[in-house]
Amino acid sequence: MRFDVVTLIPDMFDALKGEGVVGRAINRGIAQVELWNPRDYTTDVHRTVDDRPYGGGPGMVMKYQPMQQAIEAALAEAGPANVVYLSPQGRRFDQQCAKRLAESRRPQLLLAGRYEGIDERLIERYVDEEWSIGDYVLSGGELAAMVVIDAVVRLLPDVLGDADSAIQDSFMDGLLDCPHYTRPEEIDSMSVPPVLQSGNHEAIRRWRLQQALKRTLARRPELLEDRQLTAEEKTFLAEISAASGDAKQTQEQ
User: 185-207: b or e for each residue (b if 16 or more CB lie within 10 Å)?
Assistant: First the structure.
């Protein structure tokens, strides 16, 4: 799967391309990441890529012409691509979005803005989607672009050593992930839950689902609001709520 990124700081992507899951996927030909610097398409001696905003105000805005030519160059090489602008004004990028992109395999052209953003006319002309990785502001879109690439690449076939690793991730089934443990069995008086050592796969499955529901209810209850709960999940949630109520009464006494 191909990713093209329009960025003023291509060196930021060295770690992503050379290390970890994405780096291995690139080396194996599963993923491709190409970088396009708008400065390469400037015509003045200072390689200017920004200018003051019309209407006044603080900050600078990325100019139309260098960005436009970088986008056109990327599209000419990548072919028809989904053009994405990483922006705090975009819709929230989540696991389901990453899954959709991984399944589509369509090339993704990511625009990493800087300063106060890019000329609005670029968005009107080229952008198919605007994405945000959270309700905060970064110095630029590079980190957001790397987050998107990493989240999508790890879902591609044959990227992870065990395909079930991605299936069991948080949010893949709309719930947070359950707790995980590894050796040694006991450390600093803390032990691995006995059910995980039982070898009873059905009991382990039920424990993991219960723990995922418990963690989701405690940390991200809004994820349960629109979820179509199974009968088993309803039973577990009722048990969790009852246990929480009993614990609260005990504390009050």
Answer: eeeeeeeeeeebeeeeeeebeeb
Domain-by-domain residue ranges, the chain? 2-153, 186-252
The helix or strand, by DSSP H or E, that contains position 36, with its residue range, turns out to be strand 32-36
- Spatial distance between the Cα atoms of 70 and 110, rounded to a whole number of angstroms: 11
> Of how many residues is the chain composed?
253
Say which amino acid occupies 44.
Answer: D
Domain 2-153, classified CATH 1.10.3720.10, yes or no: no
Of the candidates 181, 176, 184, 203, the one whose C-alpha atom is nearest the C-alpha of residue 193 is 181
- Same topology for domains 2-153 and 186-252, yes or no? no
Contacts of 50 (CB under 8 A, 6+ apart): 60, 61, 62, 63, 114, 115
Tens of pLDDT along 14-35? 999 999 999 999 999 999 999 9
Residues in the annotated binding site for S-adenosyl-L-methionine: 113, 133-138
| Residue ranges of the binding site | 113, 133-138
Q: Which residues are catalytic?
A: 88, 116, 154, 169
pLDDT at 252 over 80: no
Please give the C-alpha separations between residue 130 and each of 110, 126, 154, in angstroms, as whole numbers: 10, 11, 21
DSSP element (H, E) containing 120: helix 120-126
How far apart, in whole angstroms, are the C-alpha atoms of residue 83 and residue 37? 16
**What fold is seen in the domain 186-252?**
Trp Operon Repressor; Chain A (1.10.1270)
Give phi and psi for 252, each to the nearest 5.
-65, -35
69-80 residue pLDDT tens = 999 999 999 999
CB atoms within 10 A of CB 108: 23
